[in-house]
Amino acid sequence: MAGKLRLAALGTVAASLSIGAAACGTSPPPSAHPTGSNSAPSVGASSRPAATTATVGSDCSMLPANGLGSLTSMSTQDAIAAASTNPQLSVFVAAVRTAGLDKLLTTRHAYTLIIPANSAFASLSKTDIIRLKNSGELMKIVKYHAVSTSITPQQFAGGATVTTLEGGRLTLAKSGTAYKVGPASVLCGNIRTANATVYIVSKVLLPPS
Known about the structure:
- By secondary structure, the protein is an alpha+beta fold.
- 35% of the residues lie in helices and 18% in strands.
- The protein contains 9 helices and 7 strands, in the order H-H-H-H-H-E-H-H-H-E-H-E-E-E-E-E.
- It has helices at residues 2-24, 71-74, 79-83, 90-98, 102-107, 118-121, 126-133, 135-143, 153-157; strands at 111-116, 146-147, 161-163, 169-175, 178-181, 184-192, 196-201.
- A hairpin with a 2-residue loop joins strand 5 and strand 6 (184-192).
């Protein structure tokens, strides 16, 4: 029963975000969406593919070894385009587009994007799901998953604290081979894309309301 409820919650979130994304257009031209961001000016994505590097995390098997969604494929695309090739990351991609932040996160360079796997959304409470459906809150939550600098595995070992685009802070931690961002475990991280470093995590990170 609990599993069915989690799946139902995930379906609710995915459906509501997908409807919002469809209303905005899932693949808008660069000028179609205002970003609503007061962040520092961003730099265009590098035209050179990022080199693949050693990944960290407990479940990098979620990425295919070859083809779309693989480390090699992701290294040639911007972070949002790369994430969109993995169906296990579709809810967060829909959230980014619904919030109108796809342009912001596509044109930034050398930043970190923390992406909750779809299973992370399935564990949200009813209150959290309602919060995601609020456009202002959704924008804050998406920005809370982006850090303006590249996070390295070494920073986890040092217990570094990083500032998100939302303005809140996240604490990194490492215990043995386990890496954490706040309360979330890293499933697969240090994934290089053409304009960002990606960490896929087990929980949705929610800024203090």
